[in-house]
């Protein structure tokens, strides 16, 4: 049974013209797996109401009482969120959804592949591994077009150190690859037992899934965003 709670916006961080981070204080909360996602509606409803129009967003945090969502304004509902959801406003979320990550395999090796705003589910996973003292089990490949597109770069670097590699495809930046993530990059850090997660645009997801399968990888996990 999914859980419904109202939440208040306590902070809005403008990462760019079309990407914002909303920090919500939950009225009630329940446990969830890192990597989960929610249904967010601007309407104020309870569990017994008919569920209204809503959209899906990954939980981009793993902390008590709060949830962060990093939202890209791409269409009708996300532009309503940008226009209507301000500090002090309330909305309703239903969660948890998804089975991207299974805690039973936390001691195995994990490679997170992120394209652009597809980094969002990994924020909760990275925090989870950090809290468990298991950060050494994870490796992040984070691909963006421009360096300024990176979200929470410093904090990721502090947590992951050499276990984060950044690919900036449209400009040359020191200490970043100026290329797409290749199969050579993947095989350098992942053997066939590594759990590999893919999150990005529809084509990013399907291209990497196909590449991994073609090269004999079988432990592949992803959330389809469209
Ligand atoms: C599991 C999961 C997790 C997700 N997590 C996140 C997250 O953390 N952050 C995030 O930002 N998003 C996330 N998404 C995606 C998010 O749910 C969608 O971006 C959102 O639902 C879009 O709703 P919308 O009404 O604003 O867009 P819509 O208006 O429904 O448009 C959707 C897409 O269609 C395109 N489109 C719209 N109209 C047209 C048209 N006339 N012609 C051509 N193309 C058009 C838009 O550009 C957009 O890409 C997630 C999705 C899933 C399934």
From TrEMBL:
Record-level GO BP terms: pyrimidine nucleotide biosynthetic process
Cited InterPro entries: Cbr1-like_FAD-bd_dom, Cyt_c3_hydrogenase_gsu, FAD-bd_FR_type, FNR_nucleotide-bd, MRET, OxRdtase_FAD/NAD-bd, Riboflavin_synthase-like_b-brl
Cofactor(s) the record lists: FAD
> Which keywords describe this protein according to UniProt?
FAD, Flavoprotein
Q: Return the cofactor note field.
A: Binds 1 FAD per subunit.
Keyword Flavoprotein attributed: yes
UniProt protein name: Ferredoxin-NADP reductase
State the organism named in the record. Alkaliphilus peptidifermentans DSM 18978
